[in-house]
């Protein structure tokens, strides 16, 4: 499906996108290439392939959940102006 510059101008108008007339031919070629790629992907036989709800649904390899560093809370809170029960104390900013 080859797009003409006039069709690109019409699509740009519908999308409320400003397109320079000097780039219409190049843009028509680029959009035609994208549409041809979509046609190729649609022609692939996906019979038996279960759709994924999210690409992150793949099984991830995870590292072992073990402590790799010692607790340094005391040394990290030592220079703080105010700390109590393991928390940094800050001035109240919302009343």
Could you walk me through the main structural features you see in this protein, from its secondary elements to its overall organization?
With 95 residues, the protein is mainly α. The protein has a domain of 38 residues. The chain contains 3 helices and 2 strands; from the N terminus they run αααββ. Helix 1 crosses helix 2. The model has no long low-confidence stretch (mean pLDDT 90).
Secondary structure elements and their pairing?
Elements: H1 5-14, H2 24-42, H3 73-77, E1 83-84, E2 87-88
Antiparallel strand pairs: 1-2
Number of helices: 3
- The percent of residues in helical segments reads 25-40%
Strand content: under 5%
C-alpha Rg (nearest Å): 29 Å
Number of strands: 2
Q: What would you call the shape?
A: elongated
Task: Please outline what is shown here.
This protein is mainly alpha-helical and 95 residues long. It has three helices and two strands.
Give keywords.
two-stranded antiparallel ribbon, mainly alpha, single chain, 95 residues, 3 helices
């Amino acid at each position: 499906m080859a797009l003409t510059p006039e069709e690109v101008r019409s699509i740009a108008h519908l999308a409320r996108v400003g397109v320079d007339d000097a780039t219409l031919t190049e843009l028509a070629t680029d959009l035609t290439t994208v549409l041809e790629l979509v046609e190729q992907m649609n022609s692939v036989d996906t019979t038996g392939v279960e759709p994924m709800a999210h690409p992150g649904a793949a099984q991830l390899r995870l590292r072992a959940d073990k402590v790799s560093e010692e607790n340094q809370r005391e040394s990290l809170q030592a220079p703080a102006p105010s700390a109590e029960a393991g928390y940094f104390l800050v001035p109240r900013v919302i009343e």
